[in-house]
Specification:
heterodimer, A: Cytochrome Bc1 Complex, Chain D, domain 2, 14 helices, 43% helix, B: 458 residues, mainly alpha, 68% helix, globular
Chain lengths: 422, 458
């Protein structure tokens, strides 16, 4: 499209004058023209060239840009950010002690301070060119001129906008004509900006809505509770090629294919007593369960037993030994919801008034043996708990049993008040 | 006009733009390549090979991620191996691009305009290749974001006193700044392509990329300011990047690494290797796309001078390292250097010395500096030598450090080799696409240094 001074093919109410554009063939004429326009006092005008022309800033009277100050601000922000970031993360929030250096080890922070200063300065320089130059601006009335296409190739232009207060249809034109341009044209612009096709609005609205989906998912993931196990995209070390207990070993190294190895004959487990004694077996020389304790009973042993019981037994048997630990309760829930089957309840270690089997009829040695080797569906804990600790647990179980059905008379007076107060 | 002007006045140099080109001629020479419907056959051949190598690289990366880093030859005591050698090699190559675009700009070296676009592209692609290796070297690549200080559910932060972390910041800053610098330089040239475009697709794509640039003097004013500032920022940046890379070694306690000469020595080596790469690429590219009027023999000669100078610096560093090892009186240091020159990897050491120190010496002679086959051979030798330099540094020091009981000979696996070759596939794929679809010479900047660009009455 070529819009001359009198556009014949365009209806006048659609188009208005954007300004006059003069073309020059070389740098010298451009500079002369610029000086003339500058001296005439115009403000809304510009020169266009395929490369930055030396001396044009003076010829046009362009004031130095504020861009360097913006860059300075960006650089200082980068410096401060880097310093605060390193100080906060490595000295305050998660103090790192590295080769005995002080927490505030400024020399070691210099590289990152430097890099972030440069990074933010460069980003602000880059963004400032765009913002101060009002770019991107994919449309401009000057692009309507076919001739103007050579502004990025080998021609030079001066454009004076109609919006300039000094603009005058004939005076401005003759001013430009007096600079001996190679060509002089009127640049037209459409009065009404073309409307964006309606489809763009829909697409835009849809795209905006879609961006909320990831946000909503993140929100849900952070704040909603779920029974499902965490999604593992990469398993890392949660999954390792290894054999677990109660599984069959496929490889031929073990003739019996058991993954859980039996104790090798003639060896002694760490912490075990190599010589069978009541302490390690719970039996006397005749092979009967002992009902006393093969080690000294004192408050210390009781405290130890309480602690170990809390760790090893309470999850199933409960802190009071009644058989309602967290594992047991969880199992009941799953059973009720039909999500599990084949569960055996942990026995109540204290029993009931009628059922005093474990309380009265089971000797200490047998309880000890239950812990060591397990019983029925309960597995043994001999491998995890040392014999002395096992006896400590037996002692504590006895204490729980006693406490449950304690005759009133046996309760110490100071505790009586406490119980009554409850 | 040719460069063989045997002028009496030694200061008078051949013009930077030859063949009597005017502004439009320069545009046509460069942009014509992008617009041309005919792609040279050799381009397709090279591109095909590069893409195959790139696919091989991707396959190898997949294999590595699936199987684990055990597919490489890295193992204690040489836990760094080729991936780090390749990383330092590639990041070093990148440095010439920034040097040409930024440092020579600050020194007002007009001759840089013929090659800066080209060299900056090389920088960006080389840094991409470089970033790849530490990225996959971390083993669990899906956790690469742990390198950055991102608040996380583990309530942990990176360790800011580690050179490896400085490296993360230095290399990513370097890449970002180089990319912005490059793109900013491209905008006016993209506008040129937009304005000459004849097909709607080209108009659309280059039009979007050109951001509506109009070449207005007010725009140029801010543009030049920003360009100058970016150059001024890139100059210390480029020096810092390879210094930080050298800290990865120098801050550790390994004999042969723990030396103060490392930062300047690494920077000189980086510039050396980078210029060699620019020559290696520029010579065939200018022949292929008829750019001899813009990338002239004078450009090549200047670059060869830089290669000679930096080669001497590198040679100086090699000898001073030996001297200090002896002068320190430290038995381990002494052993390390004797071991470098005469131990298991003596062959690598002598390849390095001959390629990096001896080969560039031919550039003392102008005949050699301006002879195309000679400079191609030397440039390629320097590329080889600089790879071996990093190999020597990484491998010899690690394979025999303190305790003889924990010495071990390193050999690469096929995956190591395939990945290194594949990284060239990545580099050349990007580079060939650049040559074909973007203006390989900075059109606006070249016009700026032509005589016609200077107003006569000023």
């Amino acid at each position: 499209m070529n819009h001359d001074a009198t556009p014949s093919n365009t209806r006048s109410h659609d188009w208005k004058v954007h300004g006059y554009v003069a073309e020059y063939g070389d740098v010298d004429s451009l500079i002369h023209a610029c000086e003339k326009v500058r001296d005439a006092g115009y403000t809304k005008w510009d020169a266009h060239s395929p490369f930055p022309v030396h001396g044009i800033d003076d010829a046009m009277g362009i004031k130095p840009t504020i861009l360097p100050w913006i860059v300075l601000g960006g650089g200082l922000t980068g410096l401060l950010t880097a310093f605060v970031l390193q100080w906060w993360t490595n000295a305050i929030d998660y103090p790192f002690l590295i080769s005995g250096k002080p927490m505030m080890s400024i020399p070691a922070w210099i590289p990152v301070c430097f890099e972030l200063t440069v990074l933010l300065s460069a980003i602000s320089a880059f963004l400032s060119v765009l913002v101060l130059n009002v770019l991107p601006a994919l449309y401009h009335p000057l692009f309507n001129l076919e001739r103007f296409k050579r502004a990025t190739d080998d021609k030079f232009f001066v454009s004076i906008e109609a919006a300039d207060p000094l603009f005058h249809e004939t005076n401005t034109k003759s001013l430009l004509a007096s600079t001996h341009p190679a060509a002089l044209e009127t640049c037209m612009e459409e009065t009404k900006q073309a409307k964006l096709p309606i489809a763009f609005h829909y697409v835009g609205a849809l795209a905006t809505l879609l961006t909320f989906i990831p946000l909503a998912l993140i929100y849900k993931a952070r704040f909603a509770k779920s029974d499902a196990p965490r999604v593992h995209i990469v398993w890392d070390m949660d999954w390792q090629p290894k054999y677990k207990t109660q599984k069959q070993a496929k490889f031929t190294g073990f003739a019996d294919h058991r993954t859980m190895r039996q104790q090798i004959p003639g060896t002694v487990a760490w912490g075990d007593d190599p010589d069978a004694s009541p302490l390690t077996t719970g039996k006397d020389a005749a092979g009967n369960w002992i009902n006393n304790f093969p080690l000294q009973v004192d408050a210390q042993l009781m405290a130890r037993g309480e602690e170990r019981f809390g760790i090893y037994c309470a999850p199933c048997h409960g802190l009071d030994g009644a058989g309602t630990g967290t594992v047991a309760r969880r199992a009941e829930q799953l059973l009720a919801a039909n999500k599990a089957q084949g569960w055996t309840r942990p026995a109540s270690l204290v029993g009931t008034l009628e059922d005093a089997r474990l309380r009265r009829d089971t000797p200490n040695g047998e309880l000890f043996n239950t812990i060591t080797n397990g019983k029925n569906t309960m597995q043994g804990y001999g491998g995890q708990i040392t014999p002395k600790d096992r006896w400590a647990i037996v002692l504590y179980v006895r204490a729980l049993q006693r406490a449950k059905f304690l005759p009133d008379a046996d309760v110490p007076p100071e505790l009586k008040d406490k119980l009554a107060g409850k | 006009m040719t460069s063989s002007t045997t002028t009496q006045n030694v200061l008078e140099q051949p013009p930077l733009v030859q063949g009597g080109l005017d502004f439009a001629g320069v545009t046509q020479t460069v942009v014509g390549v992008v617009e041309s419907k005919e792609t040279p056959k050799i381009w397709f051949a090279l591109f095909g090979v590069s893409v195959i190598l790139l696919l091989m690289l991707l396959g190898m990366i997949g294999h590595l991620i699936w199987t684990g880093v055990g597919v490489w030859g890295n193992n204690v005591p040489v836990a760094w191996g080729w991936p780090i050698v390749n990383f330092v090699f590639w990041v070093g190559i990148g440095h010439a691009g920034t040097l040409i675009s930024a440092i020579l700009f600050l020194f007002r070296q007009g001759w840089r305009t013929g090659i800066n676009r080209f060299a900056e592209a090389m920088t960006i692609f080389a840094v991409i290749c470089a970033g790849l290796f530490p990225g996959i070297h971390i083993g669990r690549v899906w956790l690469a974001y742990w390198l950055f200080p991102i608040p996380n559910q583990m309530a942990m932060w990176p360790q800011f006193r580690s050179p490896l972390l400085w490296d993360v910041f230095a290399v990513s800053t370097y890449f970002t700044v180089s990319a912005m610098f490059w793109y900013l330089g491209l905008v006016p040239d993209l506008a040129t392509i937009r304005d000459r475009a004849t097909t709607p697709i080209r108009k659309l794509i280059y039009g979007l990329l050109a951001l509506g640039w109009r070449g207005s003097a007010r725009q140029w004013h801010r543009y030049e300011r920003a360009y100058l500032i970016l150059a001024a920022l890139s100059t210390p940046l480029v020096l810092s990047v390879h210094s930080v890379v050298s800290f990865d070694f120098a801050v550790s306690q390994i004999p042969g690494w723990h030396t103060t000469i490392f930062p300047p020595y690494f920077v000189a080596g980086a510039i050396f290797s980078g210029f060699a790469m620019v020559v290696t690429l520029a010579v065939p590219a200018r022949a292929l796309f008829n750019m001899k009027n813009l990338i002239t023999d004078r450009h090549l000669e200047s670059m060869n001078k830089v290669i000679l100078a930096t080669g001497m610096m590198v040679g100086y560093a090699y000898s001073i390292e030996f001297f200090i090892a002896w002068y320190s009186g430290n038995a381990l240091e002494r052993f390390t250097f004797i071991n470098r020159a005469f131990g298991w990897y003596a062959w690598a050491y002598w390849i390095m010395v001959s390629c990096n120190v001896l080969a560039p010496q031919v550039f003392w002679f102008k005949k050699m500096r301006t002879n195309i086959p000679v400079m191609m051979v030397v440039a390629i030798l320097v590329n080889v030598g600089m790879w071996f330099e990093r190999f020597v540094i990484v491998i010899t020091s690690l394979s025999r450090d303190y305790l003889p009981s924990s010495w071990g000979y390193f050999s690469p696996t096929g995956v190591d080799i395939a990945m290194f070759i594949g990284s060239f596939g990545l580099f050349f794929t990007l580079f060939l696409l650049f040559l074909r679809f973007l203006p390989m010479v900075a059109v606006a900047e070249v016009k700026n240094v032509m005589d016609q660009a200077h107003p006569s009455h000023h």
